[in-house]
Design goal:
17 helices, Growth Hormone, Chain: A, single chain, globular
């Protein structure tokens, strides 16, 4: 058995065991969970996660182990908001504390069964016009699968391209510009979120003290990680001097030559930056007299997706089949994220808007579930596409892989535009 197979096997066993333990045993205790019991259960789950961290360290090495641990801590801190949602729902329905675990388990099982039943039953009982509108929504959901399958190459093939085939070293003024921009991108959003949470903290601390304390500690950890990252960047670039003791304490490797290297994962942050910058422009476009039809928006979005993939395909043209490294300019990746973000602004919020416009009020929540199921399928497709990158790169060259995604995007863009008369009829005047 290979190392990768062993990792996946252990991970699967751990997940299944955890689900059986949580849903099969812990949730059956119809008693009030005390602070002590909650801490004990939390300790068990954290210990399990740390155990997998040790396993990853042994099997895959320090780098991947710490990447897993960073992701775990980040997801743990960000998942705290789900706790507030569950608390609000339980309070609204007056669920007694000793029944919370049982109610949550039953709710999960019922939700799965109702989702399957209502999907078929409700569609059979609506008028012809309503059915046609929901068919239109299903068409857009179908296109959404392909959009996310290609768009989500960001954490897959595009990150690999950034890591192995892109020249990410900056010098001179470009180095200074990057450090300043990266600091602003990191600090400003985090400061805004922290301020909002502080205001929430003041209003809810009396009622939910423990949850607020955990959330606060989580954000302290996030701030610590952010400050550590920026200190490391400024130090390696030669703008910050740190003693040997400080370097050892912060686990930062000592450098003798100042260098500014853009992390491969940094390019993913451009998506958020471009969304904030471009969202007002697209919003004004949709409100103007030049507002295109739904199919045209999807066509434009898929076309922009194709344009982005074409950029990286052009950038990878000079990479020979089987090559493990290259030094392609970063501008190609920046253009990819720019065009892909513009495509996302054409499709993602627009698609959700049409769900609310075309679906009957009593079916909106249900169809949103269907919509996000389509998104999930697209995410799976993204992983399947990403798995092919090495084989295609070795046989035909890395550029061929991205040209393939370009062609798929163009085909779906043309398909959306060609279907305009049909879908327009099914939408019955909804724009």
């Amino acid at each position: 058995m290979t190392t990768d197979q062993m990792v996946y096997l252990v991970f699967g066993v751990v997940v299944v065991t955890a689900l059986i333990l949580d849903l099969g045993f812990l949730s059956k205790k119809n008693t009030t969970i005390t602070i002590r019991q909650a801490l004990q259960q939390t300790f068990i789950w954290v210990l399990l996660a740390l155990g997998f961290f040790v396993f990853m360290w042994i099997e895959e090495g320090q780098k991947l182990a710490f990447e897993y641990l960073s992701g775990y801590l980040m997801e743990w801190s960000l998942s705290i908001d789900n706790i507030f949602v569950f608390i609000l729902i339980f309070d609204a329905f007056k669920v007694k504390e000793q029944h919370l675990s049982r109610v949550l388990l039953i709710g999960i099982l019922i939700a799965i069964l109702l989702f399957l039943f209502l999907l078929v039953y409700r569609l059979m009982n609506y008028s012809q016009i309503t059915k046609e509108k929901m068919i239109a929504v299903s068409f857009f959901a179908f296109l959404t699968i392909f959009f996310w399958a290609i768009f989500e190459q960001s954490p897959n093939s595009l990150t690999i391209f950034a890591s192995d085939y892109t020249d990410r070293v900056l010098v001179g003024n470009w180095s200074t510009f990057f450090l300043i921009m990266n600091s602003l991108i990191t600090i400003v959003p985090l400061a805004i979120i922290t301020w909002v949470l502080y205001l929430l903290f003041k209003q809810t601390f009396k009622d939910y003290a423990v949850a607020n304390i955990i959330l606060s500690l989580s954000f302290i950890i996030i701030w610590g990680i952010a400050i550590w990252m920026l200190m490391k960047d400024f130090y390696t670039a030669g703008y910050l001097s740190l003693s040997d003791g400080t370097l050892e304490m912060l686990k930062i490797e000592k450098v003798t030559t100042a260098i500014t290297e853009v992390p491969a994962t940094w390019f993913s942050t451009l998506n958020s930056l471009f969304i904030i910058s471009l969202a007002p422009l697209f919003s004004k476009w949709w409100e103007s007299k030049y507002n295109p039809s739904a199919n045209m928006k999807y066509g434009i979005g898929m076309g922009l997706l194709a344009l982005g993939m074409a950029c990286v395909a052009i950038g990878a043209t000079g990479i020979e089949p089987g090559a493990k490294t290259a030094s392609v300019s970063m501008i190609w990746l920046i253009l990819v994220y720019l065009f892909h973000t513009m495509g996302e602004l054409c499709i993602s919020p627009v698609g959700l808007s049409y769900v609310s416009k075309l679906v009957p009020a009593r079916m909106i929540a249900f169809m949103f579930g269907v919509w996000y199921l389509a998104v999930a399928i697209g995410m799976k497709g993204a992983g399947m596409f990403g798995e092919k990158i090495d084989a295609i790169a070795n046989e035909s060259g890395l550029s061929s892989f991205f040209w393939m995604l370009t062609i798929v995007s163009l085909v779906m863009a043309a398909f959306s535009i060609l279907m305009t008369p049909v879908i327009k009829k099914l939408m019955h005047g909804v724009r």
